[in-house]
Design brief:
359 residues; elongated; 2 domains
């Protein structure tokens, strides 16, 4: 009878856990980003709490306001600037449709070996511009629907970001209590190794955050300097965009079009400067800074973390940037513990067999 009662209680607990996860399912992404953001900045939270005399709620509120100013405000400004640029692109396409292409740039004829062919192609596209726009017109509606859908996703992402910033406050305020609960839960599940795996997960996430966000910040700063030197308009906005695209490891999608724009304007010297700056400085820093920041202070092989980053993005989307390396790190540690325990057990058995029995 007692066994049946225990089984019934376990079934009820599993049902309650499943229902709780179902209730929280719409907020998983916001909860995840709030947890990552609060965890990555927890050393700052500790320092601020100490400066405020242990008033953790006040420190949490102040740091949340700082994050709102640092993250939310630039993204809103970026959204408005993107809307203005979309209007400019729409007007440019309308002008092309009515007036055709502008005259070919003078430098285009000087391109070695293919300059004359490029000028001829330019003139051919200009002469056939009306027919070209008539050909692509059926696809413009589909493109508009696609842009509308992406705009809706961006709007949803903004709402999710705002909710994440609200949740960050509670993670800051209740962080020690949540950490103690997680440690107690893991101790019930895996025993004495709970603290080891908590440190492993914490260290892995911290290194990935430092490596990915630190590298993105460095690339954004270098990109802004390069855009400002080359005279590209909107250098600050392009720098912020470089930060975002660096998180998904494709910053050339920002500085590449800027290089093309400089060549289009006839600024050949600055175009070559930004090309070299983008390839060797902006993108090159990723190959030096990120491996150093990710591998610093840890005993995991760098290849495990890097494969986790790339594979996590492919498997889980942007959240996989942190989920991937964490999962691989825990799996690697589990396998290492298993191999070590097997080795110790085999050595103990060999020692026992080598000891002669006492008479």
């Amino acid at each position: 009878m007692a066994t049946n009662d225990r089984l019934l209680v376990q079934i009820l607990l599993l049902g309650l856990l499943g229902a709780s996860l179902w209730v929280l399912a719409p907020f998983w992404s916001a909860l995840f980003w709030a947890a990552v953001l609060s965890f990555a900045s927890w050393p700052v939270m500790r320092i601020l709490t100490r400066m405020l005399g242990g008033r953790q709620a006040l420190a949490a509120g102040l740091l949340t306001l700082v994050w709102t100013g640092v993250v939310a405000v630039p993204l809103v400004m970026l959204g408005f600037n993107l809307a203005d640029h979309i209007k400019d692109v729409t007007g440019l396409l309308r002008d092309f449709q009515v007036e055709g292409l502008p005259p070919a740039p003078i430098w285009l004829i000087d391109v070695p070996m293919v300059g004359e062919q490029l000028v001829s192609l330019w003139q051919s596209i200009d002469q056939q511009g009306t027919e070209l726009f008539a050909t692509v017109q059926p696809y413009l509606g589909q493109m508009g629907n696609w842009l509308l859908a992406r705009s809706a996703e961006i709007g949803g992402g903004m709402v999710e970001l705002a909710f994440s910033l609200v949740l960050v406050f509670f993670f800051y305020r209740d962080g020690p209590r949540l950490a103690a609960f997680a440690q107690s839960l893991l101790q019930r599940l895996i025993g004495d190794r709970a603290e080891h795996y908590l440190e492993l997960v914490a260290g892995t996430v911290q290194r990935v955050v430092n490596g990915v966000i630190g590298t993105a910040a460095a690339q954004a700063t270098l990109a802004w300097i390069g855009f400002a030197i080359a005279g590209v308009p909107g250098a600050l906005i392009l720098g912020i965009l470089t930060f975002g695209f660096s998180l998904i490891m494709v910053p050339p999608l920002i500085w590449g079009p800027a290089v093309a724009w400089l060549f289009w304007q006839g600024e050949v010297g600055m175009g070559f400067f930004l090309l070299v700056w983008g390839f060797f400085v902006i993108s090159g820093v990723d190959n030096i800074l990120k491996p150093y920041l990710i591998s610093r202070g840890g005993n995991l092989p760098l290849i495990v973390v890097l494969l986790g980053v790339f594979g996590g993005i492919l498997a889980f989307g942007f959240m996989g940037l942190f989920l991937g390396p964490t999962l691989l790190a825990v799996a690697y540690s589990l396998l290492s513990d298993w191999v070590d325990s097997s080795t110790v057990q085999s050595a103990a058995q060999q020692t026992d067999s080598a000891v002669p029995p006492s008479s």
